[in-house]
Amino acid sequence: MSPVSFYVVIDIYIAIRYYRSYIASWYNHRYLPQFSWSETDQSIILGAFFYGYCSSQILGGYLATVYGAKLVMGYSLLATSVLALLTPVATVQSYYLLVACRVVQGLGQVMR
């Protein structure tokens, strides 16, 4: 697993687990939004990447065979990067948008 792939997998985990203990105390709760996610919601967010990742193994191989590995890898890298930049916006907008963003990131990781 490349360092970028590893970061995409663990970035939400770090944000959820250490948000309240470190960042919230650093900024004193003034500038950061508060999320009321239950343990189930947090588990779904953390697992959403792997839902997309596991569900598209065959699709990634097929697309690489038909269109070529460079093209598929380039577009998947672009899509995953854009979604990583949009993750904070999705988080603030909607829980479901965040889950969808993470699932599509998982789909894009398979294509690499």
From TrEMBL:
Organism annotation:
Elysia marginata
Report what the protein is called: Glycerol-3-phosphate transporter
Sorted UniProt keywords = Membrane, Transmembrane, Transmembrane helix
Membrane topology per record: Multi-pass membrane protein
Q: Which domain of life is it from?
A: Eukaryota
- Principal location listed in the UniProt entry: membrane
**Membrane-spanning ranges:** 6-23, 44-69, 75-98
Entries under PROSITE patterns matching the protein: MFS
